[in-house]
Request: fold
Amino acid sequence: MPFRVFPWLTLWLLAVLSFDSAAQAYPNRSVRIISPFAAGGSNDVIARVIAPRLTAVLGQPFIVDNRPGAGGAIGTEQGARAAADGHTLTMVTNATLAIVPALRTVAYDPVKDFAPIGMVGLSPYIVIVHPSVPVTSIEQLVALVRSRPGQVDFGSGGIGTPGHLAGIMLNTMTGIRMVHVPYRAGNLALNDLLGGHISVTFSTTITSTQLIKAGRVRALAATSSRRIRAFPELPTIAESGVPGYEFILWLGLAAPTGTQEVVIQQLSDALARALQFSDVQEQLTQQSVDSAASTPKELGERIKRDLAVYAKLVKESGARAE
Reply:
C-alpha cells in the first residue's frame, strides 16, 4: 500500500512545528518594556527593578522605554498597538487599565487589546501635605477642607491616575471637596507640593519615603487597609475616621493581544522567577511594594473586576476628564 500524506496531517505537523519554533526562538532580540509614566515614578522604578532579572532569566536585554502622557494612556496605547511577537511589553496598572477607561474614551480596550502576563506588585499611597498646611491628621485635613470649601487643592499626575481617584474617593466618602489640580506627571505634582504651590497629594511610597524622612513633606495617612512596613506609626485613612477606605496601586506586565500563548506562558514563568530573586525582593520592600506574582488568568480577572469597581466610583462621584 503506497504511503499517503493526508492534508490534515500536514497542517497539524506544520502547526506543531511552528508552535515549537516560536517557543525556542523567543526572545531572539532585545525586549522593550513600555513604562507609560515619567522616569522616577513608581511604574518606572518597578520596571527597572524587574528588567535586569528578566534579562538574566531569558538571556536577552529587557529595556525600559518611558512613554508618559495623558495619565498613562499614550504609552499604554503604544503597547496595545505594538507587534504581537512578545518583544514589546507594557507595565500596566489599575490606572491605565481600569481608572482612565472609566473616566474617558481611550484608544485601546483594556481587556481585548492586551494579553495579561502576570502581576508584579501591590503598593499603597500616602497622603502627604506641604509642611505649611496646618494639619497633622486626616481628621484635621477633612475639617480644614470643610472650613475652606473650594480652597484646598490636591495634585496628581493627571486625570485618571491613581492619585486622582484616591482623592476623589476621599472626597466622596467624607463629603468634602478638595479641588483637583492635574499635572502631566506625578513628579510634577510632587515638585509643586514641595514648592508650596499645592496643599495635598496622594503619593506612592516609592516617591515620598525619602521626602517624609527628610521632613520636606508631612505624611498624614496610608491609603491601604493595613499600616505599611516603612512607616508603622502612620495610621491608615480607615483608622482616621473614614472606615472602609482603601486604595492601592497594582502593577503588572502585559503583551499585545495576539501574542502566542506559548510566549505569554514563557514570560509569565520568567516574571515569577524574576520576582523570587532576593535582590528584587529587597528592592521592592525598600519601595514598600509587596511582590504579587500571579498567573495570566488571575491578572486578567483583576483587570475586569477593577474596571467595574472604578466605573462605579467615577459614576457616583461625577468625576470627568477635564
